[in-house]
Amino acid sequence: MATPIDLFRGWPNPALLPVESIAKASSVALSTPSIFQPGLQYGPDEGYEPLRQHLAEWLTSFYRPKDPISAARICVTGGASQNLACVLQVFTDAAYTRNIWVVAPTYYLACRIFDDAGFMHRLRGVPEDAEGIDLDCLERGLQEAEAKASAEGNTQPRYTLPRPWSKIYKHVLYLTSTFANPSTKVVSVRRREQVIRLARRYDVLVISDDVYDFLQWPSDMSASNSPSDTAAVPRLVDIDRYLDGGPIDDFGNAMSNGSFSKLAGPGLRTGWAEGTDRFAYGLSQTGSSRSGGAPSQLTATFVDQLLSTGTLQRHLSSKLVPTYQMRYKEVMRAINTHLVPLGFRVPASAQPIVGGFFIWLDLPTGLTGSVLADRAAAEENVRIGSGTLFQVEGDCSEGRQDFEGSIRLSFGWEEFDLLSEGVERVGKAAHRILNSRPRSAHFVDDYSNLND
């Protein structure tokens, strides 16, 4: 059997983790009483204060909003996934909040977090379009949901305990607005402004996973490997901060969900959320934080050492971004050589940047993602992601998409020397499928049972 190749796993390659820098940062933290004494305690609800301050400075330098970001807008979290669960605990009520609207295809593991919060079977997929999200489809869905809630008398939150730090939103919109997982789309600035205006009209909390923002490079394959030290597009949370005079209330309608998982290591379990001052404080009042203390209190002191010394910033600019850009180019060259001639297509993008960990491919007629993933694993020992994995679980609405006509490839995990070979093997599996039966109108149906 050929060497196994994994083009599915969305983890950072171990060789790219700053192990020595983390060891030094932890050594400094654990040998300095003014750091380890608070670091080993429960910590303030909002998180380790020095990290909040240094995060605010770092984010300001990267996103360049009109005014500096304050530490009051930031809450330290246990990572993007843990924080998503906390946001739902504080800012939604499963008996009142109508639906979770999810831009599809989506990061599939988020669906269970929504289910656990009481929204099983109330997730609704919103298609992407050329600018990142089909806003007409979303607005129609919001209108229908409001009509249904009005008919059912669901006009007030059922959660009646006094919670002055909280607001219960009618709707939640979840997306990765920059380098979406899996499609890698970037929502245009125009569409971001439209999303915020729509969110304000329908009382929507927009949760944007901004976990790939720092991993960006030019989409031009001939461009140099020099990284950009500023964001190419403003975040939704920044647009909500300024658009049309700013937020319509103290909580706002957008939050940024950030994480160090792809930058320094998932095991650190450290991230941040940014929103209005009141939103950030409300998030810090999640019951688990009030009882157990700030998430990741000790590792937050390690991460703060990385940020405050500029170590993480240098790691990003000198190693992570150039390496991932090189990996992206390697896989794209292999796609153009081995897959495009078979009819595979990389969806077009008008954005001047690409980034993240993934490449989304549309399949040629006569091929389905689930069949190709199975055959690539069985015959070529290569793991890829079938598009079906990235549908919105539990979405039973009309027009639900299954994404059988697509696959996702990851270039973040596997060793560099195996990336091109992995794509070539996927091409071999696809070639055998495409040539095994006569092409006909029923070709896909003929192969639909190969997974059984």
UniProtKB/TrEMBL annotation:
InterPro entries: Aminotransferase_I/II_large (IPR004839), PyrdxlP-dep_Trfase (IPR015424), PyrdxlP-dep_Trfase_major (IPR015421), PyrdxlP-dep_Trfase_small (IPR015422)
Molecular function via GO: 2-aminoadipate transaminase activity; pyridoxal phosphate binding
Pfam family, one: Aminotran_1_2
Domain Aminotransferase class I/classII large: 19-411
PANTHER family: AMINOTRANSFERASE, LD15494P
Protein name as annotated: Aminotransferase class I/classII large domain-containing protein
Organism whose genome encodes this protein: Talaromyces islandicus
